[in-house]
């Protein structure tokens, strides 16, 4: 049976960068990337709506969840700056749009191609349709058993299989081989995903986008507040601020979502606006009372919900509703729509400087399979790049 120096399981963001860093550290190594799908980097192509938001200019540990301390140490050991220097070496020019960093071409395919070309130029072997199902450490090396019936031996293994987010769920071959080797995992939940809510209140608003502040609450305590564009849909709500709080819905921590539909106005400013309307819009029908202030359908819906009473008390009720439009969450839309997984293999058994297991020598883990998830905005790919780079270069150094 063939024995390679390094087998990388998973040809996604972290696995491909691990491959490049391994071969740049020690060009004489035999490195094989085993990818379950019919091509590498499929998920990468869908990132950032096809534009690949590959990192952020405001990477801080606070933007990570799960094992945040581990994320902080990883990012210290391989920073965003080093990542961008590496991409520059791979001839990928980048551009920042606000805090988000994209390829200059605004094409995710350009990022994947630069990674693929570098793997090929450095002499890596990439095998597609090669899902690894069993990983067995032996005295000398590792035995990797594949779903297609073949097997391979490797002196070092990097496990870079990602998560079920945005792909068809295959839990056994993602986490199980690593859990069986004594690494516990935290339960996984889809995150950065649309939120289902009670529908009665928002049915008339389907298809409308508004600027709002979204607060995730638990027993009236604020867990997290995010501002941005919110979309009302037939399942509930979506949009960037909703994705950011979706983790709290998915894990069951959030029991109420409160939308502030005028985040730049205080409640007293809204009350003043409404009181002026009592006289100025006195002749208007109810359906037009808030026209010129709020989105028309939002205004009509809230006016009705507040009782439709044109009095000072009615305006106070309406202002309260505009500032605190409360929805009960009913879970999230699921793995296929999620951009990341909360939970995963607990990183405590891995060295954040090398990504090597403290339990199984020669085994490295990188990317989203670990219990670290970032906010929307380039944070998850940055974690994949940093952990992939550390795993690849450390595995190669251990073979020198
Ligand atoms: C729609 C969408 C948009 C996103 N947009 C962004 C964004 O703009 N910015 C950002 O930072 N993050 C984004 N993300 C998240 C980001 O894509 C992931 O965090 C990142 O790809 C994780 O890298 P990874 O290497 O851990 O896993 P992946 O990139 O998922 O790679 C894992 C690879 O391993 C393969 N594999 C799995 N099991 C096996 C096995 N047993 N044997 C062999 N191969 C296997 C998979 O087929 C896959 O190719 C997005 C995610 C989605 C779904």
Terminal CA distance: 23 Å
Q: Residue share in helices? A: 25-40%
The count of DSSP E runs of length 2 or more, i.e. the number of strands, is 21
What is the total number of structural domains?
2
Bound compounds: flavin-adenine dinucleotide
CATH fold topology of the largest domain: FAD/NAD(P)-binding domain
Low-confidence stretches: none
SS strand fraction:
25-35%
User: How many distinct helices?
Assistant: 11
Gross geometry:
elongated
| Radius of gyration using CA atoms only | 25 Å
Mean of all residue-level pLDDT scores: 96
Structural class computed from helices and strand pairing: alpha+beta
Q: If classified by CATH, what would the architecture of the largest domain be?
A: 3-Layer(bba) Sandwich
How is the main sheet built?
Answer: 7 strands, mixed
What do you see in this structure?
Strands 1, 2, 7, 8, 9, 10 and 20 form a 7-stranded mixed sheet that branches. Strands 17-16-13-14-15-12-18 form a 7-stranded antiparallel sheet. A 3-stranded antiparallel sheet has the order 3-6-5. The mean pLDDT is 96. Helix content is 32%, strand content 26%. The protein has 400 residues and is an alpha+beta fold. The protein folds into 2 domains: 3-190 and 340-397, FAD/NAD(P)-binding domain; 195-332, no CATH class. It has 11 helices and 21 strands. It binds flavin-adenine dinucleotide (FAD). Residues 9-15, 34-37, 42-44, 46-48, 52-53, 131-132, 160-162, 165-166, 173-174, 339-340, 367-369, 378-381, 384 line the site of flavin-adenine dinucleotide.
């Amino acid at each position: 049976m063939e024995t390679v120096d390094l087998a990388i399981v998973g040809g996604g963001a972290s696995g491909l960068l691990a491959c490049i860093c391994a071969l740049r550290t020690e060009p004489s190594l035999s490195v094989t990337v085993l990818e379950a799908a019919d091509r590498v980097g499929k998920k990468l192509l869908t990132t950032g709506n096809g534009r690949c938001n590959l990192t952020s200019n405001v990477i801080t540990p606070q933007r990570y969840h799960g094992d945040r301390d581990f994320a902080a140490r990883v990012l210290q050991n391989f920073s965003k700056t080093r990542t961008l220097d590496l991409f520059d070496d791979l001839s990928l020019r980048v551009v920042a749009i606000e805090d988000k960093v994209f390829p200059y071409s605004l094409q995710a395919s350009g990022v994947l191609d630069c990674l693929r070309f570098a793997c090929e130029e450095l002499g890596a072997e990439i095998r597609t349709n090669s899902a690894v199902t069993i990983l067995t450490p032996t005295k000398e090396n590792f035995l990797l058993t594949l779903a297609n019936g073949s097997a391979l031996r490797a002196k070092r293994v990097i496990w870079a299989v990602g998560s079920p987010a945005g792909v068809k769920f295959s839990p056994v071959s993602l986490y199980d081989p690593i859990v069986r080797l004594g690494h516990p995992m935290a339960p996984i939940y889809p995150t950065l995903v649309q939120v289902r809510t009670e529908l009665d209140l928002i049915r008339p608003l389907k298809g409308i986008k508004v600027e709002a502040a979204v607060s995730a609450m638990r027993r009236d305590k604020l867990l997290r507040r995010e501002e941005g564009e919110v979309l009302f849909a037939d399942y509930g709500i979506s949009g960037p601020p909703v994705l950011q709080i979706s983790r709290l819905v998915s894990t069951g921590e959030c029991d109420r979502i409160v939308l502030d539909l005028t985040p730049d106005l205080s409640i007293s400013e809204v009350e003043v606006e409404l009181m002026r309307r009592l006289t100025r819009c006195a002749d208007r029908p109810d359906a037009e009372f808030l026209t010129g202030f709020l989105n028309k359908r939002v205004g009509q819906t809230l006016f009705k919900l507040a009782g439709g009473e044109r009095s000072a008390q009615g305006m106070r009720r309406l202002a309260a509703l505009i500032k605190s439009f409360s929805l009960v969450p009913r879970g999230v839309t699921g793995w296929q729509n999620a951009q990341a997984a909360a939970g995963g293999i607990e990183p405590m058994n891995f060295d954040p400087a090398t990504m090597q297991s403290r339990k199984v020598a020669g085994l490295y883990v990188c990317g989203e399979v670990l219990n670290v998830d970032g906010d929307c905005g380039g944070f998850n790919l940055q974690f994949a790049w940093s952990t992939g780079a550390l795993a690849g270069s450390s595995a190669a150094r251990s073979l020198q």
